[in-house]
């Protein structure tokens, strides 16, 4: 196998579901949800730099699972959870 082929990754369509940010939410919650939405969509937290790790690879036509471990103090945690 050539070096060029070894570095390739399979790509395809992805559905990413993020919550709507309620108008009446507290500023802290709005900030936390906006950060989490951006992190979910991009795979990297814009606040603490955490990167999503694939736990269960997706199957063709199916779903996969990924986790992101935010740093302590990241506003996305909203209370340190």
Description:
The structure is a single chain. With 81 residues, this protein is of the alpha+beta class. It has a domain at 26-81. The chain is 25% helix and 9% strand. The chain contains 2 helices and 2 strands, in the order ααββ. It has helices at 3-6, 27-42; strands at residues 53-56, 65-67. Strands 1-2 form a two-stranded antiparallel sheet. The relative contact order is 0.16. The model has no long low-confidence stretch (mean pLDDT 84).
Report the span from N to C terminus: 45 Å
Question: Total strand count, please?
Answer: 2
Low-confidence stretches: none
Main beta-sheet strand count, sense and barrel state: 2 strands, antiparallel
Oligomer: single chain
Strand order of the largest sheet: 1-2
- The percentage helix is 10-25%
Give me the strand/helix succession.
HHEE
Q: What is the approximate shape?
A: globular
Hey, roughly how much beta strand do the residues contain? 5-15%
Enumerate how many helices there are, as a single number: 2
Report the C-alpha radius of gyration, rounded. Answer: 16 Å
Give me the secondary-structure category.
alpha+beta
Q: What do the pLDDT scores average to? A: 84
In short:
The chain is of the alpha+beta class and 81 residues long.
List the helices and strands and how they pair.
Blueprint: H1 3-6, H2 27-42, E1 53-56, E2 65-67
Antiparallel strand pairs: 1-2
């Amino acid at each position: 196998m050539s070096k060029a082929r070894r570095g390739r990754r399979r790509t395809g369509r992805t559905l990413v579901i993020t919550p709507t940010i309620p108008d009446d939410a507290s500023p802290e919650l709005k900030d936390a949800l906006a950060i989490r939405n951006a992190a979910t969509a991009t795979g990297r937290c814009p606040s603490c730099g955490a990167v999503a790790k694939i736990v269960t690879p997706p199957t063709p036509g199916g779903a996969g699972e990924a986790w992101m471990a935010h740093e302590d103090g990241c506003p996305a945690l909203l209370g340190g959870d």
